Amino acid sequence: MKIINVVGARPNFMKIAPIHNLMLKSKKIQPILVHTGQHYDEKMSKVFFIDLKMPMPDIYLNVGSGSHAVQTAKIMVEFEKVCLEQKPDMVLVVGDVNSTVACTLVAVKLGIKCVHVESGLRSFDRRMPEEINRLMTDVVSDYLFVSEESGMTNLKNEGVPKSKVFHVGNVMIDSLVNHIKSADRSKIMKELGVKKEEFCLVTLHRPSNVDDTKNAKILVDTLKTVSKQLKVVFPIHPRTLKNFEAMGILKGFTDNENIKLTDPLGYLDFMKLMKESRFLLTDSGGIQEETTYLGKPCLTLRENTERPSTVTQGTNILIKELDKKLILKHIKDILDGRVKKGTVPKYWDGKTAQRIIKILEKSQK
Ligand code: UD1
Prior knowledge:
- The protein is an alpha/beta fold.
- Helices cover 45% and strands 16% of the residues.
- It contains 16 helices and 13 strands.
- The chain has a 7-stranded parallel β-sheet, with helices on both faces.
- α1 (10-23) links the parallel β1 (2-7) and β2.
- α1 (10-23) crosses α7 (171-183) and α1 (10-23) crosses α16.
- The protein is globular, with a radius of gyration of 20 Å.
- Uridine-diphosphate-N-acetylglucosamine binds next to α1, α5 and α11.
């Protein structure tokens, strides 16, 4: 059975790695790794192949950045050529980025079976491009692999037949389990001059936070205040840096010795920092889950989350309003020891890729 595994953007790599690496050992599956090139900077892409010990892509589409329409369309044009040439039995996509939906649309129209890993998550906020990508991908997929209970409920409510849906757990946690020991050997703390629990780790890249000057200013100002109490490590996404520079709001930020602004970091360095930080401040999807697994306090700057188990069971707190006082209040709670305790959701155990592959292998007649 020939399966094309698709990666495109940074959050895809840690989800595909355990699946692709395990498929390479399967006697029944011949996996092919296709990289769309949605993320292309070495620090947003190549480093993850090295850190996650994943072979370099078999096929690279080199599509690059663009508006949503341009990017999605370019991926579709290039990916269709790949499917026509390779004639795969299945196309497997992960997550909710533009590459996910683009490749699924191509595959389904060519009559190729579609597999969506991390299916069923919903923020119920259609202003988010990722929500559109999730909905569109799920509606045409044949195998829907779900990471948390809410996904099962959402798909049921949308009328997806039960026979297509499998609660297999969180494949990103497989990567975390597989690599947490190697992450311990990272030298990043020394390089940045930070000590265990004496810093917070920040990531911000969502359009709602970093495209709007008013919101971006609030965030930069809040981080400056936080830096008076503890060090701030901020590996900055290229779009965030570009925006902040254009807005002219980096004064007192880049030249602040308590704020460690770095390029995007590799997987192992980031894991290490996440594990050793006091808490995280983020708008990422995946980090909400990784912190829940690690039992680390996470403050998420978003109005909603498509990963509600991180809030109901895990250590995640949503800060729904971009308000400096409110953010600082939550940070004070953590620094004063009022920390939210959590549990790890079902099947977040490092064995999700095994479960997925078993189901796919069984599907072969
Ligand atoms: C994408 C995903 C988002 C995910 C995020 C993680 C979609 C709709 N969004 O958002 O869900 O959380 O990745 O990083 O797919 N850029 C570079 N170098 C790169 C890649 C991007 O400089 O390697 C810059 C470009 O200016 C580009 C911008 O970042 O225009 C945005 O990139 P894009 O892939 O469109 O979306 P992300 O914001 O990265």
